[in-house]
Predict the structure.
Amino acid sequence: MKRKSILSMALLLVVLFSAFPVNAQLVRLTYYYPVGVAGPLARVMNEYVEEFNALHPNIEVVPVYSGDYDPTMQKVQTAVRGGNPPDVFIVEISELPTLLAMNAIEPLDEFVTDEFLSDFFPAFLENGYSDGHIWGIPFQRSTPVFYWNKAHFEEAGLDPEKPPTTWDELREYAEKLTVRDPQTGEVIRWGVTISGGWNDWLFQCFVRQNGSKLIDYQERTAVFNSPEAVEALEFWVDLTQNLKVAPPHSTWASTPPDFVAGRTSMLYHSTGVLTFIMDSAQFDFGVGFLPGKVSYGAEVGGGNLFIGKGIPQERKEAAWKFIEFLTTPEMAARWSRDSGYVATRKSAYEVPEMVEYTNENPEYLVARDQLQYAAGKMMSPAFQRVREILKTALDEATAGRTTPKAALDQAQTQINRLLGQWLQQ
Amino acid sequence: MKSNTQQTPKFGPLEKAFRFIGVNRIHIHILLILVSGVTLAPYLWALSTSLKYRVNVFTETPQWIPNPVNLGNYKEVFRMAPFGLYLVNTIVVVVGILAIQILTMSTAAYAFSRLRFRGSEGLFFLFIVQMMLPVHATIVPNYLIVNKLGLLDSRLALMVPFWATGYGTFLLRQSFRQVPRDFEDAAMIDGCSGLRFLYSILLPMAKPTLVAFSLISIVTHWNDFFWPLVVTDSPAVRTLTMGLAMFVQQESGADWTLLMAATIFVTAPLMVLFLIYQRKFIESFMSAGIKG
């Protein structure tokens, strides 16, 4: 008898629950994200996602850590080719033309408002646009800045609070800061290091500082051998070959440790390493704008948020809700503090916790203030190959194997051949 | 084995040649010590870095013995990703692949080396072609198949594409072919044929090949990064390399202490495995065939 009543109770419960399908419209989103800077960011990201899921009982975002930028892009590409695109993902900003060529992403025009966009720093938005549509929303964004070792400045009789602000000052300071072995003349400490690996990115900053640019994506022009670009490369060759105050070759990962170990006095690198340098350096250091020529200048970098092509409308809407959640001023400020990235929106710097944080660590404001002189990152179809061509030209010239003019002329010929069709349209 | 070592001549032909040009054992040992020093140094440096505090990693004079010692990196690594789970997954996947591979490749190699059937040449040619395809060319087709089978994001997805191996089949076929026909005839007369002949005579005789292939297979799939990256999403089924990737960063460069701690943890099981079995590995290469 008792057993029967339990059974009927259970039956009743089942009927009741199926009458109110609480979870019937649960929208599940797959979200691929890379981790580009050191730190427990995968865990931080999982926290954000959990908070979002708790706030939206009918949406479940499944976070998928997908390695670094390149592996993430490869995972996205495979999934798109396999007919199984992720709903939301973050990839490196210059991948936009490749994503468009693969037909991998949805335009976001229907979701964005002018009010929403106007709060983002314009330089960060640039890489989100193509063909008059917006495709990507800024999330984890960085830009190169200038680091200097204050102790070395004092040793060399320079004012430790005044970094070089022009190329000429940079050259002069680098000469004073370089330390050579008195017997062999071998360099023990470099005056300045313009980090390799992403030196194409840094070179674009130098071209900007000289008042020109290499590729205009919206206008579809590519000029690699302009007088301004040649002059910039001549300046690099001057530092590396003629004066020998900067190493001709280095890797992106090795130069921040070099700076921390005192093997170079000044460093060009991303804002992404600021936290690393703060934690590791046992000396006073400063963070400043990249020295200018005609003006200050920099290019932005990092990753944008995208929505996968062809997902159902309800998932698209849910995906946008998630993007909105990740980019509110409060979240942008929080992500900036958790990761060291530059917050993507102006109002993020007015959030009380952020005000307190930047008062304590004013170094983090340098990148934001430099943004007024910054522009979008170079991008084009076949971007990885464009990069290779440019990097080869830079390396050949700084190694002294060819003149800057000849190296960039050759790069221009190769770029014309590679991008011919795209440029003519 | 003991009687075997006593029978080996005091100097091998290689040593005789060395003696002829005036190189003796001491020279050779010095050379070997230098070479092993060069090979071991990066590993020891990684071990040392994994035990340091961040500020001691980049010092003007390299610091080989960490002072003070910091075990916190390992704790931190475990806090950042479920490495214990990753280890279990990796072992399951690597063993799961190897077990089925041995099954498929031994039967296939038996067919190609001992049986005559129509199209065997052509079929074998296809096996060889499979060996030459770069892995990246098959990623998307494999992904499509795994997706169709509904296996995405499972440990099975990590194993299925590797269950048949052209390379292993080729290696094993070659070593089966070196076993004289007489063995088969003798076995046949004693009433041992087909599969039984394969498992009780051919395979034991091909032990060196099996051991060599197993090593390659284990190391390949232990270190595989791209396929697990593409087909898995949830930590529950992911492998060690995915955990290791969390410590490599493009924009900022890595946090070396954590990266090295993770590297040591990921590579240590393979090192231990090799240290335990290295005698066995080498023995199996020495006692090739004859003793069965």
About this structure: The first strand of chain A starts at residue 27 and ends at 33.
